[in-house]
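Q: I'm building a small set of examples for a reading group on sequence design. Run inverse folding on the following structure and report the sequence directly after it, with nothing in between.
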C-alpha cells in the first residue's frame, strides 16, 4: 500500500497470498467432495498435502525471517493491519496443519509422492524470477539477486529442503494419527 494505493500485481505475487488463495480453493473443493460423499482422489490428497506444507512454510518463513523486517520503502508510514497479518502468517498455517493431521485421506499417499509438493513452489519461484528479472521487483529479500547469487541459491535450497522434509513427515504423521 502506498498512500492507500493497492498494488494488486505485487500483492498477488507474494507466496503467502497465492498459497492462501489456493488453499481456500483446495479445501472448498475437498469439502464439496466430502459433502457429496465422493471419495478423495489422489490429486486432491496431493493438493491438500501441498497446501498444508506450503502454509506451514509460510508460517515458518514469515515468523523466522520476515516478521518485524523493514517494509518496502513505498510503504513507510502505512500501518499494516495486525489481525489479518497474524491470521495469514501464523494462525492460518497452524489451522491448516491441524486440518491435514486430523483429516484422513482416502488415498494412502506413498512417501515418494511427497516430492510432488515441490511443483507449486517451483512454479511460483519461476514466475517470481521471470517477473523479478523483467521488472526488477522481488517479493522477498531472500530471492532477490542483489544480495548475491550464493545467498539466493542457499535460501532457495534451504526452503526446498524444508518443503521436502515437511512433506516426508506429514504423510506418515497423518497416517499414525488416523490409525488412532
Amino acid at each position: 500500500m502506498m498512500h492507500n494505493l493497492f498494488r494488486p500485481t505485487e500483492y498477488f505475487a507474494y507466496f503467502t497470498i497465492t498459497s492462501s488463495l489456493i488453499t481456500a480453493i483446495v479445501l472448498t473443493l475437498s469439502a464439496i467432495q466430502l459433502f457429496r460423499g465422493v471419495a478423495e482422489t489422489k490429486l486432491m490428497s496431493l493438493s491438500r498435502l501441498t497446501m498444508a506444507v506450503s502454509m506451514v512454510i509460510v508460517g515458518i518463513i514469515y515468523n523466522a525471517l520476515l516478521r518485524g523486517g523493514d517494509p518496502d520503502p513505498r510503504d513507510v508510514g502505512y500501518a499494516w493491519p495486525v489481525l489479518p497479518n497474524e491470521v495469514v502468517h501464523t494462525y492460518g498455517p497452524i489451522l491448516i496443519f491441524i486440518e491435514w493431521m486430523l483429516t484422513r485421506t482416502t488415498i494412502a499417499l506413498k512417501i515418494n509422492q511427497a516430492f510432488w509438493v515441490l511443483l507449486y513452489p517451483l512454479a511460483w519461484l519461476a514466475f517470481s524470477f521471470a517477473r523479478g528479472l523483467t521488472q526488477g521487483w522481488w517479493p522477498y529479500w531472500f530471492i532477490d539477486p542483489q544480495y548475491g547469487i550464493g545467498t539466493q541459491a542457499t535460501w532457495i535450497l534451504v526452503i526446498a529442503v524444508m518443503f521436502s522434509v515437511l512433506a516426508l513427515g506429514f504423510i506418515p504423521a497423518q497416517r499414525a494419527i488416523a490409525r488412532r
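The helical segments are 8-11, 15-36, 42-66, 82-102, 119-135, 149-179.
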